[in-house]
Amino acid sequence: MVAATVEQSSCGPLHGKEPSDGKQNEPIIRHTAEMLHVETSMKTPAIKTTALCALALGVSFTSVHAGLITTDNFGSGGNAFSIQFAAVGNAGNANDAGAGGGSYSSPYGGVSYDYRMGVVEVSQDWITKATNLGMSNVTAGAWSTNRPAANMTWYEAAAFVNWLNTSKGHQAAYQLNGTNTALTLWTSGQAWQAGGENRYRHKDAYYFLPNENEWYKAAYHKNDGVTANYWDYATGSNSIPTAVASGTTAGTAVYNGVAGSPADANLAGGLSAYGTMGQNGNVWEWNESAFDGINDSSSEDRAFRGGGWLNSESSSCAPRPASASSRRAGTSLWVSVLRVLRVSLNPRQHCLGSV
């Protein structure tokens, strides 16, 4: 939930974004949350990426997040898998104006509705199982099992989200062609309208790639009410995260080249204030958003965020004005993954307390 500067730092201000094109050969990945949203390293301003957030299988979360995590199940038999979602409330909060006591600010984070964000980055295991159950034209494969799913284009990330929707009988979120290589905009009557018209996303879908504001809020907002208070890092702190190869210790993140590859999606460091993992470091994540933030052209570059395991603190943890990035939607990002976002604004759909 991939940045153009994937191989920079992994824990600098994570609120930025920066444009880029061509292929990226640096390894970073993230998951989707009902609406896949990703941002560069921590608050890096120059890089954005969307990622699918999924649950961490077999992971237990601290009591502070107990009751805020829900689980959705997909598939069956040997191809069954589950995705955990963290509730992101405090609807109507303002953008990050630097009021959180830290060093950074960024014009992102304000969201007018409640939603649920994938706790972890989408794993290769989920992609493999969805493919076994009929999903087509989605490739990844840089790593296996519970490692993040990488080598995915934005279209492939969107296709996985579509599969999550249609496998449960919901409307597909994105209008893709048969080979998952192009997007057609929805009409205004079909398009998502909450928080402003979004012609990439269908209003009746259930799972999405997170847009930049959704991704940013889940990563940095302090979860202290309808406020404009944000942490500098996606670990619920203004202190630079401790770089680790793997684990779930509070205040840690997978970055700075401590390991030679990303950690398992459910072992990607400490949690944000809302209970998401790995939004700083591990792998870059695709965001749903076009680089200019207005989803009104299918040909625009897409944003990615979060940073990767090889990146430094300035790239993985910096605020957005400095490290958010973009890339062409058809470009495969070796180090990028997605995170899933889940939102239900339709009264016919169950929202599990999310809205």
Short description:
By secondary structure, this protein is an alpha+beta fold. The chain has helices at 124-132, 154-167, 212-220, 313-316, 320-323, and strands at residues 32-34, 53-54, 69-74, 81-88, 115-118, 120-121, 175-176, 183-184, 191-192, 198-202, 207-208, 242-243, 252-253, 284-290, 302-305, 325-327, 336-337, 339-342.
Tell me roughly what share of residues is in helical segments. 10-25%
User: SSE order in H/E notation?
Assistant: EEEEEEHHEEEEEHEEEEHHEEE
Number of DSSP helices? 5
Low-confidence stretches: 1-67, 318-323, 346-355
Reported for the largest beta sheet, the result is: 6 strands, mixed
N/C terminus separation: 21 Å
Mean model confidence by pLDDT = 78
Rounded to an integer, what's the Rg over CA atoms? 17 Å
Oligomer: single chain
Number of strands: 18
Rough outline: globular
**Percentage of β-strand residues:** 15-25%
Structure classification? alpha+beta
How would you characterize this protein structure?
A hairpin with a 6-residue loop joins strand 7 (175-176) and strand 8. The protein is of the alpha+beta class and 355 residues long. It has 5 helices and 18 strands. Strands 1, 3, 4, 5, 11 and 18 form a 6-stranded mixed β-sheet that branches. The chain has a 4-stranded mixed β-sheet with strand order 16-15-14-17. Strands 2-6 form a two-stranded antiparallel ribbon. The chain has helices at residues 124-132, 154-167, 212-220, 313-316, 320-323; strands spanning 32-34, 53-54, 69-74, 81-88, 115-118, 120-121, 175-176, 183-184, 191-192, 198-202, 207-208, 242-243, 252-253, 284-290, 302-305, 325-327, 336-337, 339-342. The protein is 11% helix and 17% strand. The relative contact order is 0.32. Mean pLDDT is 78; it is low at 1-67, 318-323 and 346-355.
